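Take a look at this chain, tokens included, and explain the fold to me:
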Amino acid sequence: MSTGEVIVAGENGVALQTMVLVDENDRQIGLCEKMEAHRRGLLHRAFSVIIKNDAGQILMQRRAAGKYHSPGLWANACCGHPGEGDDVGAAARRRLGEEMGFECELHLARRHSYRADVGAGLIEHEFVHVFFGRFNGTITPNAREVAAYRWLEPDALLAEVASQPETFGTWIRDYLVHFGDKIISRPRVS
């Protein structure tokens, strides 16, 4: 959990995560319990991490079956929600370690908003800080978060999303439409 994350008690004393609600310029306008924010489709702050290796392959994870939305779908390396007052980059690095078992330097590539029905009566409506990183080491995913992972060539990713879109999270499909050129670009050779 994030250091600045607000936790409220739900029924039976179970801790509930609170999300940072934002306006279209990423200015905080309030807080809301995580599931309520997703049921109501409220715009909230998020981060998304895209990792490539030196060969230009893109790290994809299959979300674990127990995830609250989009279980079993392929997505980018990790996503999450920073807590109130959290440094978004630090939260993204921390979440990458929690989900994929490694950390690396991340660079903010862009900010992006999207709204998508993710099933089960939930709507993702995010103001996303998109980070890119490079990693070539050992990956040790957290089985509670990640069912599988793989490195995909950019052309293979595009082909799979085109032929089997239902096997990918709505956000990665949205990213490929809006800034796919940055995701699939090959590293420069010096």
